[in-house]
Amino acid sequence: MLEGINTVVLIVIIANVIFSIKGFEDYAFLDKYKFQVSRVKGDEKIRMLTSGFLHVDWMHLILNMYVLYAFGNIVISFLGTLPFLIIYFGSLIAGSLYTLQYHKNEPYYSAVGASGAVSGIVYASILLYPGMSLYLFFIPVPIPGYIFGVGYLLYSIYGMKKQVGNVGHAAHLGGAIGGFALTLLLNPVLFNTNRMFVILLAIPIILLLVFSDKLKSL
């Protein structure tokens, strides 16, 4: 399965696995480094980073790491190792910042997972390679990457409002925004080469930023 995987992507996956297993076995460790609004708003900003290397269970971990494995090489092949790391960690922090903003009045809200970072990598991959096709569970036909990107973002917005499942939708959304912005910053030629897809992926992000307050009041 790991044939052809980039060394840096593999190291990031291994780090997630090691720290997540530690969290599985030691709740005090998980509790110390998970994202929690009241702690982050205090003097424990490091939780915005450390929470991205923890997961609640094996399914959560495997899903995130599989998506990272599937999309990480695309970003590195187009941009290189350093830009990949910038997008990964930048998206992780963007996911935490958006989560903090969205749940700022919920001091006990907590979350873990690499979802923000991985979402940023997914969005970066779609921007860099909009012609990609994705196969999803239970759907036998490929879905164009840009349609998946817009759909994913809209689902995250819905999930934030309805609190669908035990999923950090705000981190997904913040990470996708981070990945979108950082990829364009690192590779601005995309404004010319993939302009239509840049606009298509930007529309739901702009609508969200403009109407975020109304979303919470609905």
Give structural notes.
This protein is mostly helical. The chain has eleven helices and four strands; from the N terminus they run H-H-E-H-H-H-H-E-H-E-E-H-H-H-H. It has a two-stranded antiparallel sheet with strand order 1-2. A two-stranded antiparallel sheet has the order 3-4. Helix 5 packs across helix 6 and helix 6 crosses helix 7 (115-128). The chain is globular, with a radius of gyration of 17 Å.
H-E string: HHEHHHHEHEEHHHH
CATH fold name: Rhomboid-like fold
CATH class: Mainly Alpha
Count of distinct structural domains: 1
Radius of gyration: 17 Å
**CATH superfamily placement:** Rhomboid-like
**Tally of strands:** 4
Looking at the structure, what is the overall shape? globular
Q: Any low-confidence stretches, pLDDT <50, length ≥5?
A: none
Structural class: mainly alpha
Measured distance between first and last alpha carbons: 44 Å
What is the mean predicted local confidence, pLDDT?
A: 86
Give the strand order, joined by hyphens, for the main sheet. Answer: 1-2
GO biological process, one term: proteolysis
Pfam families: Rhomboid
Subcellular location: Membrane
GO cellular component, one term: membrane
Keywords:
two-stranded antiparallel sheet; Rhomboid-like fold; mainly alpha; two-stranded antiparallel ribbon
What secondary-structure arrangement, pairings included, does this model have?
Elements: H1 7-25, H2 27-33, E1 35-36, H3 37-41, H4 47-50, H5 58-79, H6 81-102, E2 110-111, H7 115-128, E3 133-134, E4 143-144, H8 145-162, H9 169-186, H10 190-193, H11 195-217
Antiparallel strand pairs: 1-2, 3-4
Helix pairs in contact: 1-2, 1-5, 5-6, 5-7, 6-7, 6-9, 7-9, 8-9, 8-11
